[in-house]
Amino acid sequence: IATTQPSMAQQSGTAWHGMAQPGTVQQGTAASCSTARLSTAQSNSTAQLGPGTWGLMPRAVCPPPRYSLYARTRLGYLFYQRQVKKARERYPHGHSVPQPYCFPGVKILPIPVLSNNYSYLVIDTGSSQAAVIDPSDPLAVQAAIEEEGVMLEAIFCTHKHWDHSGGNEALCQKHSSCRVYGSALDAIPRLTNPLTDREKVTVGCLTFEALATPGHTVGHMVYVLDGGPFGSPPCLFSGDLLFLAGCGRPFEGSPETMLASLDVAVSLGEDTLLWPGHEYALECLTFASLLELDNSALEQKLQWAVQQRQEKRSTCPSTLGEEQTYNPFLRTHRPELQEALGLWQAGGEDPDAFRARVLKEMRRRKDLYQAT
Fold this sequence. Notes:
Blueprint: E1 2-4, H1 8-14, H2 40-48, H3 65-72, H4 74-90, E2 101-103, E3 106-113, E4 117-124, E5 129-133, H5 138-148, E6 151-156, H6 162-165, H7 168-174, E7 179-183, E8 193-195, E9 200-203, E10 206-212, E11 221-225, E12 235-239, E13 242-243, E14 246-247, H8 255-266, E15 273-276, H9 281-291, H10 296-310, E16 318-319, H11 320-326, H12 335-340, H13 351-371
Parallel strand pairs: 5-6, 6-7, 7-8, 12-15
Antiparallel strand pairs: 1-9, 2-3, 3-4, 4-5, 9-10, 10-11, 11-12, 13-14, 15-16
Helix pairs in contact: 3-4, 8-13, 9-10
């Protein structure tokens, strides 16, 4: 496994994406369908509700108490273990039918875990070396490793949440030479190799680039697999930053921070394949269809997702080009979406500040939609 660090100029210029940069972290220091429309009454009621949980705070966001219990205490780990057990009983073969993605020299195997999570086993087929992204359930991941007959060399964690990092300990005990990669800003279990923004890691012939994308957690990272050597498009493993037609909740960041991180993903190019951390497509597309009533790309994708999920088939990957046609969280610049939310740009308002307002309102409505 080889690691390549970016230049200091690259680190200082892009590492924080709009966040106030804290003190330097020393390398090696371990620091997460229905197609019915909203009625007019529902829409008006939503618009009259007060500010959402996530205020525009200068440096940090105070997460709700339940989140703090889950993310920062042993109670969260016990809850995670209970969820793993329940999911194994309910979905003995996984919540979705995995569909491997193969190009000459590389294989990506989605591993459905818990009730809607995905881990990903990425294999260099020439050397049988492999890396896993976000190993939630170690038994499911180990079963895939054994079935594929590969050697686990690396674990890449997008963030600290147990449903993305809970399998680290068990897998490291099973594979003693395995390295664990992630941000030093998140308390990732068994972290051995803290990464900085734009740092690259090589596993066999696989090259991953880590990108800092704070917001969901302060240390959230995504990983981009270079598809060039295999004749494949780039592959983005987005964790809880970006889903098909959705995005993660900004538990530990402001709307401005989350917007900047989403912009990082968009900058990767339209042909980039999106491999999200959750199977949320049907829910996210249905919500999006309530905001944009005349979006034909959205309607087609929703119909496709309904068919996929009826057969328990995975909806990933999509492409970033597709996402920009129907994912509302990547369309904060679109006038039709802004008007649907009842928002207009004030005279002299910075365009990105306005887009952050749009994102904040959209995220608030999405949270209300999930609660109903």
